[in-house]
Every structure is written in structure tokens, then in C-alpha cells.
From TrEMBL:
Biological process, per Gene Ontology: cAMP biosynthetic process; intracellular signal transduction
Membership in a protein family: Belongs to the adenylyl cyclase class-3 family.
GO molecular function term, any single one: adenylate cyclase activity
Subcellular location: Cell envelope
InterPro entries tied to this protein: A/G_cyclase, Adenylyl/Guanylyl_Cyclase_3/4, CHASE2, Nucleotide_cyclase
Keywords associated with the record: Cell membrane, Membrane, Transmembrane, Transmembrane helix
Gene3D superfamilies to which the protein is assigned, alphabetical: Nucleotide cyclase
Official protein name in the record: CHASE2 domain-containing protein
Pfam families referenced in this protein's UniProt entry, alphabetically: CHASE2, Guanylate_cyc
Length: 798
């Protein structure tokens, strides 16, 4: 039974599933332990973005189009681009800082203050003082008067010098004190990207601004920017220690996000496990000695080191929001202290609301999913769809990053150019400076509750172009896409990990199943179709549901399992062909063997319509007595060879030799419609061949034979034991053929055929003579028998 089960498993129909499961484990392991498929998914994400439709355009007459705006783009995001018009108006970049003050005054000095912007973000650095100190005073006063200005901090991965650190961290502390930082953080913060340096705006700017945020993006492996780091970790060195100064009693304030770390030879900070134990300290000393460089001090500057030791840093972490997160929190009338942050899972802004500039009141936040359709006469064709949003839950990874749901290609600030987000020229506002008299101010600037984002929008004025899934894009527009993702509650959602694993499993196993059961050609068509269909479904779910479903691993896995199963089929089929040739080459003609390659016989027995042939030498005992054993063997070999070759020529299957008797059959292992005709012609041909042999032999060695033929359904197959089997035919019709061979003696004939065989050849030119109705042993019903004499058209095989 064990051998039988093992053989069944190796059958391609079953072993293909084993291969499928092995490939599933392989690809699952690759997805879990390597970044190969992650990199592919990044490229597929870019493709999904480029397949999205942002605008629907309908041509209504030559040269005129109507653009239907994507409802997934917030109407409250407006970019003020520092474009070529601005450069032409104000000269080369950077502008004098009073220009920025003019811009801010243009929005703060309007009569209807309820129509003010929600926030104004300056994507401009104010790290160094201006050459004209008076311009700094003018700008900081304008920032303070505006009261809604957000400025940015730039974070750096590398530590600063002590003097720089003291100055910049002091500047940053002003922003913390005024606007706050993120404290309510849960989850493992160890993988949040760490920054040990920063560049903060000048202190007067920090005091004047309403809010802040970091402007950093972290690129992927291919230098493309697909994510916004909503939570960043800014680490401040409180003190440095000799590693030998540490003991298990050394304390740090965990509630204030303090920690201990050392720097390896690659310049990477390694956090030390806390609380400290003797075991941890011993391992720490070993690690720093092997993997870090010692600090060498020469206190008297004589060129000889006075002290060498390994440094441990006592750090304090500050969790800083991105500028987009700060803008969104302010837009929803919340503060950083209202955020619920779980690293590796989500950031939630609870009970969000927005300011209705028409009613001048805060109201529940409503998102429009579909705009109403209106005909040319202003009639509503279909109602729009809106939803009230109570909470905004932002999915983030374990590094505090959010995938940006880009809404389209980069915008063009020129009039009539393509714009994903509306872009207006910086100069259009900064060149129109309102006076000090409120009565001369305009009533509104048509930016009620909008978030104004000011930034570079011309090539060459700043190093602010980054590669995105849509190609190069200015930094301020990347911020706009990230902010829009939050405001529109339009996040890219990674499906649960187990669902991706299940899809991988089903994709591979389905292909393995079908490839083992249909031909390689059709299975290739099916494989390509299923891979393509899977991609289309994933693209549709991305487009309409923002679902992120892995495709690369299932797609590649499906193709590889197809190749593996096809190769296994080729190998096993070649093995089967060799086995068939070895098994049946001795019994059947080469023509039949070749046909069997396309349809191998089943193991075991099966019923076939066959004709059974038995022949026997007459008076063989007497013949054997007249010859020596060697002469008898030589004579029999010559006779049996000639008779067997004749059987093969007529596409018969040799069953066995029974002493001097021959048993063979037609109709198996390959079905033959003319099995009775072939057997009859073979029998007559054997008599002709025997006459030729007898003419060469002396009278005492001449052979005479009798042949019996019977047609009917018999069981054909491999019979015997698993260790030794024989391909043979069995059944009542076999016994009748054997009896007919012996009847030749009574009727002095050479070939006796049954009525069933006669009925199949009587209309095919067979010449027969009816002999008798006989009752053979084991049968109650008489059997009519015939002598086969010849064929009208000869014995040729068609």
C-alpha cells in the first residue's frame, strides 16, 4: 500500500498541488523576509496612480471643453505658486522678505474677517536673518497680524555641532511652547525615523507664527516620494556619558521620552534596552567596543591623547507633526493634544468639524463623494452624495508614515494649463498691497476657509522638485496631495496581511490545479488570463475603493507554478513513454506503441472490444521426439519469430507463449475498430508464412498449426501483483477462442472463427464456410462456428 500511495502522489494531478504548496511557501517566505516584492509593489502603485482618471473632459464644441472636477479633491486647498510671473514681477529669488509681508497683508486685511483663510503655510525657510534686518521686522509683524501663518522646520538625520544644536533646539523649543508637540503616543516608537539635527526658523518667526510642522519627506528605495512622514522623532542630546559610568541604578525619564543610545561605526544610533541590568550592561560594553569608535580627548592640546572612552548618549525625543498634519488638525478645529496616535496603526482626529465661512460657524464635517449633475438649464439630473465624518483615522506604518493618495500629475501655474490643484500666482496677491485704512480694504479675497500653501512653482528657484509616481513635482504640491489625502478621508488602505497570503495561496494553487489537468497551451492561456484578470480587479479596487492588494507575488508565483507543472509534466510524460516502450515494445508493433504515447493504458483492468487469437502446433509431441532438444529449440525459435513478426505487422498484441502455443489479441491497448478483420488477415498470412517455412524444412520437421479466433468484450490490463505483473486479456471470450483452436482437429481445418468474428468480417470480403453449431465446455448455448478460407481482395493491411 505504501508504494501504491507514493506512486499516486507522484501523479501529475496530485503532485502539481504539492508543487503549488511548495511554491506558495517559497513566495510567502520571500514576501516576509525580503523587500523584492515590496519594490515591485511600489512600481505597481505608480502604475495604478497613472491609470487613475482625475478629470473627465467633455468636448461641447470645437476648441471648448468642460472639465468635471474630481470630488476627491478638496475645494479648500489653494496653492499660491512662486512662478515665472512672480519672478518677472519681483526679480530673482529669493525675494526681499517684505514681499512675503505684502502677501500676508493681502489676505489678513479684508473687511469680512469671516471670509478669511483657514491657514496660510509658507513653504519658505527663515533660518538665516535677512540682509536687511528691517524686512525681518516687517515680515514678523505681518505674520503676527495675520494670525494664521504656519512655518516649517527642516529635520536632519546627522547630529549638529554643540553650538548649532544649542541655537536650533532653542528655536524649536519656542515652537513647542507655543503650538505644542505630540505626547499621546502608543505603540513601539523605536522604528519611527529619528533625526538628530534640525534647522528651525529664527526665534522672532517662531514667536510670531501660529503653528509649525516639519517639511521632511522620506524617499523610497528608488528615490521616489510616495509617503508623508506624519510623525517624526527629533532627538536632543541631554548629556554624554562614558559607558563605564552606567550602572543599573542610572535613571531616565521614560514619560518624557528619554532614552539611552550609542553610535555604531556606520553613524547609526542604537537604542539601549531599559531598565538596565548587569546582563544588559555587560552586553552593551561588548557591543560598543566591537562596533563603535572611541572618543579621544586631548585636554592640554599637546598632541597626546589624555583620555579614550566609549560614549553613551542620554537623549530626549520630541515627536513632531508634519506640516500637513498640523494644517489638517487646525482645519478640523483641533490641537495636537487631541490626536490619538498608535504607531504602526493609525492617527485619529476625533470629532472633526469645519468652519462654514457663509454662516461663520463651526459645523459637522461633510465630505462630498459625488457632485450633483445639472443640465444646461440648471435642472438637477441626479443628486450628489455626501457623508458626515465624525472621526478622521489616518493609517500609518511603524515609521509614522502615511501613503499619499496622489490626485494627478503636477499642476501648471500658467493660464489655461492643466491643474490637479488650483494654482494662483504669488505675484497676483503680493503686488496688491492693502493700505492701513480698513475702509479701503476689499470685502473678501474669495478664500474663505481655504488652506493657502505658498511655495516654489518655477524651475531653478529652489531645490524643491522631487520625483513622485507622476514624475517631478514641486514640494508644495506634494504637501497639497498629502493634505488632501487627510482632508478628504481618502486614504490608501492596505488589506489585512492574511488576505494577501490567502490570495497568494489561491492564485498559485488554482494555476497548479488547472495546469495539471489541461494541455500546456490552454493552461498558458488560462494562466495569462487569470493574471491579467487579477490585475484588472486589483486596479478597479484601487481606483474605486483605495484598496492596496499585493499583485506581484501572486502574479509571478502563478507564472512560475505554471512553468514548474509543465516541466514536471514533460519529465513524467517522458518517463511514462519510456516505461510504456519497455512494457509494450515486446508485445505490440511500433505503430501501436507510438499511438499509446498519446493515450497511455490505464493500470489495472478495463473492458475492451477485442478479438482473441490462439494457435497451436499439431502433433508437437511426435515432432519433438524426432529431434534433439537443441534442434527443437532452434526450430521453435524460427517458427515463433516468424509468427510473432506477423502479429506485429498486423498491429496485434502478443500476450504470451504457452509452450508451442501463441496467444495474442487485437483491440487493446489501443482500441481498433477493425480488430476482427486484422486478426483474420493475420491468421491467413501466418499460414502463408508457415508454408514458406515448411518448404525449406525436411518433411520430418514440417509444422502444421490450428488457429482459433473469437471476438467480444474482454477485460484487458496489467494483471498480477505489484512486484510482478503481466499485460494480458481475460474473460469468457478468451476461453472460447482457446476452445476453437482445439476444434480444428475434429473438422480437419486450420482456422476456426466464432459467429461474432464472422459477423464483423463477412461484409469485408472474408470467404468463410459454415461448419457447425457446437456446445463448448462451460457454455450452455450452442456456438456457430466457421472456417476462415481467405479474402477476396488479398491480405494487405490498410
Amino acid at each position: 500500500m505504501e508504494g501504491k500511495n507514493r506512486g499516486k502522489i507522484l501523479n501529475v494531478k496530485y503532485f502539481s498541488l504539492v508543487l503549488g504548496f511548495l511554491f506558495f511557501l517559497l513566495f510567502w517566505g520571500l514576501t516576509a523576509s525580503t523587500s523584492i516584492f515590496d519594490h515591485m509593489e511600489h512600481k505597481l502603485l505608480d502604475l495604478h496612480f497613472n491609470l487613475k482618471t482625475v478629470f473627465e473632459q467633455t468636448r461641447i464644441q470645437e476648441g471648448v471643453t468642460i472639465e468635471k472636477r474630481n470630488p476627491q479633491i478638496s475645494p479648500d486647498i489653494l496653492i499660491l505658486g512662486i512662478d515665472f510671473n512672480s519672478l518677472n514681477a519681483f526679480g530673482r529669488w529669493p525675494f526681499e522678505r517684505y514681499r512675503h509681508a505684502n502677501l500676508l497683508d493681502a489676505f489678513s486685511r479684508i473687511q469680512d474677517q469671516s471670509q478669511r483663510e483657514s491657514a496660510l503655510f509658507l513653504d519658505i525657510f527663515f533660518i538665516e536673518p535677512d540682509n536687511n534686518a528691517y524686512d525681518d521686522v516687517i515680515l514678523t509683524e505681518a505674520i503676527q497680524e495675520n494670525g494664521r501663518v504656519f512655518i516649517e522646520t527642516v529635520l536632519k538625520r546627522t547630529p549638529m555641532s554643540e553650538n548649532e544644536a544649542e541655537e536650533f533646539f532653542a528655536r524649536q523649543q519656542i515652537l513647542y511652547d507655543k503650538y505644542g508637540e505630540i505626547h499621546n503616543i502608543q505603540g513601539d516608537t523605536s522604528r519611527v525615523i529619528e533625526y538628530y539635527g534640525l534647522q528651525s526658523p529664527l526665534k522672532p518667526y517662531g514667536r510670531a507664527a501660529y503653528g509649525y510642522g516639519h517639511a521632511n519627506f522620506y524617499d523610497d528605495y528608488d528615490k521616489k516620494y510616495r509617503r508623508q512622514q506624519l510623525i517624526a522623532k527629533s532627538s536632543v542630546v541631554l548629556k554624554t556619558l562614558d559607558v563605564d559610568e552606567l550602572s543599573s541604578s542610572y535613571s531616565i525619564d521614560l514619560e518624557n521620552q528619554e532614552r539611552l543610545a550609542w553610535v555604531d561605526k556606520d553613524g547609526q544610533f542604537q537604542t539601549i534596552e531599559y531598565p538596565l541590568t548587569d546582563k544588559i550592561l555587560n552586553q552593551l560594553k561588548k557591543d560598543v567596543q566591537e562596533n563603535s569608535a572611541p572618543r579621544i580627548e586631548d585636554s592640554d592640546n599637546d598632541g597626546n591623547p589624555d583620555k579614550s572612552y566609549y560614549v553613551v548618549y542620554h537623549l530626549e525625543d520630541h515627536f513632531i507633526p508634519s506640516i500637513t498634519l498640523s494644517l489638517a488638525v487646525h482645519y478640523f478645529n483641533k490641537s495636537l493634544s487631541d490626536l490619538e496616535v498608535v504607531i504602526g496603526d493609525h492617527i485619529t482626529i476625533h470629532d472633526v468639524e469645519y468652519f462654514n465661512s457663509d454662516s461663520a460657524q463651526w459645523e459637522p464635517y461633510v465630505i462630498t463623494d459625488e457632485f450633483p449633475e445639472i443640465d444646461a438649464e440648471g435642472n438637477i439630473i441626479s443628486e450628489g452624495k455626501s457623508r458626515i465624518v465624525r472621526d478622521i483615522t489616518i493609517p500609518i506604518d511603524d515609521r509614522g508614515q502615511m501613503l499619499i493618495n496622489y490626485m494627478g500629475t503636477r499642476s501648471n501655474s500658467s493660464r489655461g494649463g492643466y491643474q490637479t490643484f488650483p494654482v494662483r500666482s504669488y505675484s497676483g496677491y503680493a503686488s496688491r498691497v492693502p493700505g492701513m485704512d480698513p475702509t479701503s480694504w476689499p470685502r473678501t479675497k474669495a478664500v474663505g476657509n481655504k488652506i493657502l500653501m505658498v511655495g516654489a512653482f518655477a524651475q531653478g528657484i529652489a531645490d524643491d522638485e522631487k520625483t513622485t509616481p507622476y514624475g517631478l513635482m514641486y514640494g508644495v504640491e506634494i504637501h497639497a496631495n498629502a493634505l488632501n489625502t487627510i482632508l478628504m478621508d481618502n486614504f490608501l488602505i492596505n488589506i489585512p496581511y492574511w488576505v494577501n497570503v490567502l490570495i497568494l495561496f489561491l492564485s498559485i494553487m488554482i494555476i497548479a490545479f488547472f495546469t495539471s489537468r489541461i494541455g500546456p497551451g490552454w493552461s498558458l492561456v488560462l494562466t495569462v488570463f487569470l493574471i491579467f484578470a487579477q490585475f484588472i480587479v486589483i486596479s478597479i479596487l484601487f481606483e474605486f475603493k483605495n484598496l492596496m492588494i499585493d499583485f506581484s507575488a501572486p502574479g509571478i508565483g502563478s507564472f512560475f507554478i505554471y512553468i514548474a507543472v509543465v516541466l514536471y509534466r514533460v519529465i513524467t510524460e517522458e518517463s511514462d513513454k519510456k516505461r510504456i516502450k519497455m512494457m509494450f515494445g515486446k508485445y505490440v508493433s511500433p505503430v501501436v506503441v507510438e499511438k499509446m504515447m498519446d493515450k497511455p493504458p490505464e493500470l489495472g483492468g478495463e473492458d475492451n472490444d477485442t478479438t482473441i487469437f490462439f494457435s497451436d502446433i499439431r502433433s508437437f509431441t511426435t515432432l519433438s521426439e524426432t529431434m534433439s532438444p537443441q534442434e527443437l529449440v532452434q526450430l521453435l525459435n524460427e517458427y515463433l519469430t516468424a509468427m510473432t513478426d506477423c502479429v506485429m505487422e498486423y498491429r496485434g498484441t502478443l500476450d504470451k507463449y504457452i509452450g508451442d502455443a501463441i496467444m495474442c489479441f487485437w483491440g487493446a491497448p489501443i482500441p481498433q475498430e477493425d480488430h476482427a478483420l486484422l486478426s483474420c488477415k493475420c491468421s491467413l498470412k501466418q499460414l502463408e508464412i508457415l508454408n514458406e517455412l515448411n518448404s525449406k524444412w525436411p518433411p520430418e520437421k514440417q509444422i502444421h498449426i490450428g488457429i482459433g479466433l473469437n471476438s467480444g468484450v474482454s477485460t484487458v490490463g496489467n494483471m498480477g501483483s505489484e512486484g510482478r505483473m503481466n499485460y494480458t486479456v481475460m474473460g469468457d471470450n478468451v476461453n472460447l477462442a482457446s476452445r476453437l483452436e482445439g476444434i480444428n482437429k475434429q473438422y480437419y481445418t486450420s482456422i476456426v472463427i466464432s459467429e461474432s468474428t464472422y459477423n464483423q468480417v463477412k461484409d469485408r470480403g472474408a470467404i468463410c464456410r459454415e461448419l457447425d453449431d457446437i456446445r463448448v465446455k462451460g457454455k450452455k448455448k450452442p456456438v456457430r462456428i466457421y472456417e476462415l478460407v481467405g479474402f477476396e481482395e488479398g491480405l494487405e493491411v490498410n
